Amino acid sequence: MAADALPSVESVRRWGERLLGAFLVLGLGSIFALGWAAPTFIVLLPLVLIAGGALAVLVRHPLAHLSVVLVALVFVLQKEEGVQITEALCGVYYLSYLGSWFVYHAVLGRERLLRTPLDCAVALLLVFGTASLVLVPFTGGLPGPAVRQWMALVLFAFYFPIKEALVRERYGVHVMLGTLALIVLILALQTFYNYATDLREAEHLWQIANNREREHERFLMIGLLGSLVFLLYFARTLRGQVVALVFAAASFAGVAVGLSRAVWLAVAAGLGVLFLIVEGKQRVRLVAAGALGVGALLAVGTLLLGDAFSLVIQGLAERFSTIGSAGSKDVSLINRFYEWRTALELIAESPIIGRGLGVPFDNYTLIYYVTENKFHIHNAFLGMLYRHGIVGLGLFVFILVATFGLGVRLTRRQSSRLEYALALTAVTVLPALCVAALTEGMMMDTGGVFALMLPAAFVSGLGQRHRHG
Fold it and tell me: What is the pLDDT of residue 459?
């Protein structure tokens, strides 16, 4: 009876449109009033009109709306100091979108969103994380850091809109793939711009050799591995192959200039998985594509950077040569070992449900020889165990294992070239992300959570799509 008393979806849509119109009128009135009191702010009027019109159009086109929200997350993925205005606005935007999406589909539409154990695990992780936020006053957590950690974790909720778009929308696979490619392209261009800016501002040779830009390595790693998979199994025309190779080379360059040995090892793990899965003929193509891409990058780097490029290569070579000895000689990595030991000692005090969100801990750093009061643990698995205990870590590991297993099963089924390439990309990317997660707190920042969510959403959507035929 309670369900029958709910208003129809169409009725809610009409009232929603009226509400949006009322907000637009209110916003325009506020702008005019503000412009009258402070004329310099009248420049906001065109922006409000454009934003209001765009939102009204997007509400009527759910797939396009989801694509715009995902691209807008690029602003949330930035790692600038403090909270930027674009980051705050986009954060409100994506939280509003997620809230309205779940109300529309799960409550009003009465749709069944939890169909598989993977769906349930993702939902439980989100519920458990939200419960941890509610319990912050009782766990001793700090509200500000707790909210930021929760806002990062809640990005995993995009698993459901992306999955449903892949299952229900006729062009959902193509639009979501195009959206992901656009995000990687934007982040790659930003990486190269920042790297070039730092090179221009360098005053000493060592600054050129040690210059690094590692803000978006995880997405560039996805772009690299995904481009290689599509080059091998999807691109059939010469133009398509050239585009895939250029995309892979650009992503490889972005990963390289990050100078992160953990990410380099992660890429090697992903390439190793891909090399083991593909057949002999494709292995030869993979090696040839790698050689061609590296050769092209060397030529372009020499052309654009001139003499400075030799210093860049020298810095890359020196960094690469320290991979084997990093565990015993790199102070930053050794410091993380001590950080993990401290975290494990605190985990033992609350192993089942963890210590909660926003709870800091004291750790002596060997880099600055001071005791830091910090939240970040450079290990995603240990961080989940610290914040959410065995329950949270168990759900997280189950999501990863279930995603990988489903991806492997999808690669063994008869499907289109596009769906096969996407499934193989997920199988290749996920081990790489897990390797990177061993030395990075990926479940504490928006970029890491978003990157780990994508393979799960894609393989789950493709699996459900395959079952529906």
Answer: 95
Eight-class DSSP state of 156: G
> For residue 227, what are the contacts with CB-CB under 8 A and spacing of at least 6?
244, 245, 247, 248, 251
**86 against 389, higher pLDDT:** 389
Q: What are phi and psi of 361, to 5 degrees?
A: -145, 155
Sign of the alpha-carbon torsion through 420, 424, 429, 434 = positive
Sequence letter at residue 154:
V
Helix, strand, or coil here: 275? helix
Average pLDDT of span 60-77 = 82
* 8 A C-beta contact, residue 324 and residue 265: no
In angstroms, rounded to a whole number, what is the distance separating the alpha carbons of residues 247 and 226?
Answer: 9
Q: For 269-293, what is the mean pLDDT? A: 89
Evaluate whether 404 touches 365 at the Cβ level (below 8 Å): no
- The whole-angstrom separation of Cα 162 and Cα 454 is 9
Beta bridge partners of 361: 374
> Which two tokens mark 75?
């602003």
* pTM of the complete model: 0.85
Q: Supply the pLDDT for residue 144.
A: 86
Residues 6+ apart with CB under 8 A from 116: 460, 463, 464
CA distances from 135 to 65, 128, 273, 383, 462 (A): 33, 11, 41, 18, 36
